Amino acid sequence: MIFKKTLLCLLAFVFVQNVFAYDLSKKFGFGLTGGYSVPVFGNPFNSQADADFGYAVHGRYHFNEAYNLELAVGRSEFSDTRIRLDNFNLIGVWRVFDSNQWTPILGAGLGLTRVRNFGPKSMKLSGLARVGVEYGVSPWFSVGLLADYQYVSKLLGDMPTTRAHILTPQLALTWYFGGESSKAAAPVNEVQVAQSTQTTKSNIVDDSNLDSDDDGVKDPEDRCPLTKVGTKVNAIGCAMDEKATMQINVEFDSGKSAIDSKFNSHLDEVSDFLKKYSEVKVQIQGYTDNQGSVAKNVALSDARAKSVMKSLVDRGISLDRISAKGFGPADPVADNGTREGRQANRRVVAVISSK
């Protein structure tokens, strides 16, 4: 009864939580499961074995946000008897809602089962099916409510009625490590400037007196350094119909839009730049990699862009000069097929234009 109440409470907890992206791609997991092994269907095994506690340890590897492979080693015990089943199972699992914080899961697999104290000792082939729901408490820990159906073949040689059918509702706790962890933030004084398809870099704090394009704006303040000589430009070196982009070096935890305090100094510099050039407007644009659905990535990138916008408004930038929009996986700047490329595509940029 206590176990049932615990399951119900955890299930209620899962469904009342806010949903956010929860990407386990390339992560390893290690955990424990515990539940009740209940023999089902009528056969000699079922008549001798009553429901009792079952437990296992498991290891996982998540190929991407939707699919993982699990290796589990455990034991099913049965009350009023000495019968034991030692299980070695390999299970393929599908996270139905991909990178959501909670998701239904479906799984199937094969294994070997050693039958103890029921006929001759031997290893039997077993099959497994799984349904359940999993909730990501943090990027490094999840709780799952699972129901496994196990079929064990030919417990007593060729006798057709001595196969085992076992249903095990259980609680699973999993800790994760590895994966695509955030890299260290890029230096706060580096900005990326783009004009059309041409890109160059400049340094906000560079005190050089060079004016490479001879437009009257020194290189350190020139956000459009490829502007043709003689073009009428504004205070940041851009023609009135030109736009420039500034890379904002803020990184986010997987599925999150909150800004870590370690990026405050960089956001202070961005704010100082916008205060210095009060005649420009800026749109904060958020982008993601291509992992997960487009709709979820657009929503996540929009939330991140708005977090950056709010931080700049909090630093004194007028709201009528700044806006935010998320573009999800659009316009990748690197190959989404590599970890480094996906990291580069998870970015926030400020698009600067004349008023």
Question: What's the topology here?
Answer:
Elements: H1 2-16, E1 27-39, H2 44-48, E2 52-62, E3 67-77, E4 84-95, E5 102-116, E6 122-138, E7 141-152, E8 164-178, E9 190-195, E10 198-203, E11 243-248, H3 264-276, E12 280-286, H4 294-314, E13 322-326, H5 339-345, E14 348-354
Parallel strand pairs: 12-13
Antiparallel strand pairs: 1-2, 1-8, 2-3, 3-4, 4-5, 5-6, 6-7, 7-8, 9-10, 11-14, 12-14
Outline the structure in words.
This protein is of the alpha+beta class. The chain folds into 2 domains: 2-178, Porin (Beta Barrel), CATH 2.40.160; 190-354, 60s Ribosomal Protein L30, Chain: A (2-Layer Sandwich). Helix content is 17%, strand content 40%. The protein has 5 helices and 14 strands. The strands form 3 sheets. An 8-stranded antiparallel β-barrel has the order 1-2-3-4-5-6-7-8. The protein has a 4-stranded mixed β-sheet with strand order 11-14-12-13. Strands 9-10 form a two-stranded antiparallel sheet. Strand 5 and strand 6 form a beta hairpin. Residues 13-20 and 181-207 have low confidence and may be disordered.
